[in-house]
Automatic annotation (TrEMBL):
InterPro entries: Acyl_CoA_acyltransferase (IPR016181), GNAT_dom (IPR000182)
SUPFAM superfamilies in alphabetical order: Acyl-CoA N-acyltransferases (Nat)
Alphabetical UniProt keywords: Acyltransferase, Repressor, Toxin-antitoxin system, Transferase
Organism phylogeny: Bacteria, Pseudomonadati, Pseudomonadota, Gammaproteobacteria, Methylococcales
GO molecular function: acyltransferase activity, transferring groups other than amino-acyl groups
The name this protein goes by in its record: GCN5-related N-acetyltransferase
PANTHER family reported in the protein's UniProt record: ACETYLTRANSFERASE, ACETYLTRANSFERASE-RELATED
Catalyzed reactions: glycyl-tRNA(Gly) + acetyl-CoA = N-acetylglycyl-tRNA(Gly) + CoA + H(+)
N-acetyltransferase domain sequence ranges: 29-145
């Protein structure tokens, strides 16, 4: 993303205190827990920073994971080796600050997560997300994700569909 925002790895120099997206769980995680998870190497966090003010406009987290082959959609299973699980990147959280919502920044952060996953030196087959509600699920489906597995709101985007 160029111009108004830059996407950076979360660092101690970023001021997280003014961030508010309106979803208590996402705000609390970003303000109180994300640095612990990053330090423990449980997740990576990327922030969209407004270039002229330095304000954090949004963030997302990305981690490695695996999903059982049997949980994949049947049309995808046909194209995969018969290993018990499939390596994936997991989009854990994605939030846009209240003053930046409605500007397609969420799509920009999602695009960045897809790019990072596709370019990873560690092979991952897909980007997976557990959407928090119907609105979030509709957002991901709009961007090409499809449902899989037995859990409600569990979505996948095979990176073979993604061209960088």
């Amino acid at each position: 993303m160029t111009g108004r925002f830059s996407i950076e790895v979360l660092a101690n120099s970023h001021n997280r205190q003014g961030f508010y997206c309106g979803v208590e769980a996402l705000d609390r995680y970003f303000l109180q827990q994300v640095t612990q998870d990053v330090r423990r190497r449980a997740t990576a966090c990327y922030v969209a920073v407004e270039t002229d003010t330095g304000r954090i406009a949004g963030y997302y987290t990305l981690a490695a994971g695996g999903i059982p082959l049997k949980d994949m959609p049947e049309d995808i299973i046909k194209r995969l080796p018969r290993y018990p699980s499939v390596p994936v990147a997991r989009l854990g959280r994605l939030a846009i600050g209240s003053g930046f919502q409605g500007q397609k920044l969420g799509a920009g952060l999602l695009w960045d997560a897809l790019l990072r996953s596709a370019r990873s030196e560690v092979a991952v087959f897909a980007l997976v997300v557990d959407a928090k509600d119907d609105t979030a699920e509709n957002f991901y489906r709009h961007h090409g994700f499809v449902g899989f597995g037995s859990l409600h709101h569990q979505l996948i985007f095979p990176l073979t569909k993604f061209t960088t």
